[in-house]
C-alpha cells in the first residue's frame, strides 16, 4: 500500500547536478527559432530571453520561465505564429538530448532512508520519458520512486498542477505532498496544489531563485530530513 504522505522531487538541480545539456538545447532552440523565422537581430533575442556568454542570466525567462514564456518572447520579434513550431522543435531537441547525470552526494542513501520512514516518493520533471528512464537506470533508483511525472507531451508543465493528474487519480491531495525543488516554478507548483511543505534547495538553479513561495530553504537536498515533520 502506498503511503498517504508523499515527497515530490524535482530532478535536475535537486537530485542531480544541473544537467548542462539543458543549457545546450535551450540555446539551440533559440538559434533554431531565429533561423526558421528569420529573426535577424539574434543578439536582441538573446538579451530579451536571457542568454549571455553561453549561459542563462539570473531572473531571466530562459533561467526560470516556461516554454509558454519563451514563446511569448519569440513572438515579440515576428508577426508569424511561432507557438506550434517552437513547441514541436523543443520536444525534438529534448528527445535527442544526451543527459549528463551525476547524483548529489548522499542522495541515494537519503532516498532509501525516506522510503524506510514510510514516505511515498515521486519525481516531477520537465525532462521527457526517455531522459527520466536514463536517469533511473544510471542512478539505479528505478525501484525507489512510486511515481514519475514528466512533461513528455508538452501539454502541461510546472507550475500547472494539471501535470500532476496521475497523483490526483490515486486520491492524493495537495496537502499530502511535500514539494522539493531548485526553482521558483517548483515552489509555485507546490503552492498551487496547497502542499504541506515547500522546500527550496540552493543547488542547480536554486542558487539564483527568489523562493518567495518556499516555506523553508536548505543549502542542498541532503539536509531535507532536518526540515521534515518529526512525526507523520
From TrEMBL:
PANTHER family per the UniProt record, alphabetical: PHOSPHOGLYCOLATE PHOSPHATASE
Keywords on record: Hydrolase
NCBIfam families for this protein: HAD-SF-IA-v1
GO MF, one example: phosphoglycolate phosphatase activity
InterPro entries linked to this entry: HAD-like_hydrolase_sf (IPR050155), HAD-like_sf (IPR036412), HAD-SF_hydro_IA (IPR006439), HAD_2 (IPR041492), HAD_sf (IPR023214), PGP-like_dom2 (IPR023198)
GO process terms (BP): DNA repair
The organism's place on the tree of life at top rank: Bacteria
Lineage: Bacteria, Bacillati, Bacillota, Bacilli, Bacillales
Keyword Ribosomal protein annotated: no
EC class name: hydrolase
EC number: 3.6.1.1
Protein name (Swiss-Prot/TrEMBL): Haloacid dehalogenase-like family hydrolase
GO CC terms in record: cytosol
Pfam family name, one: HAD_2
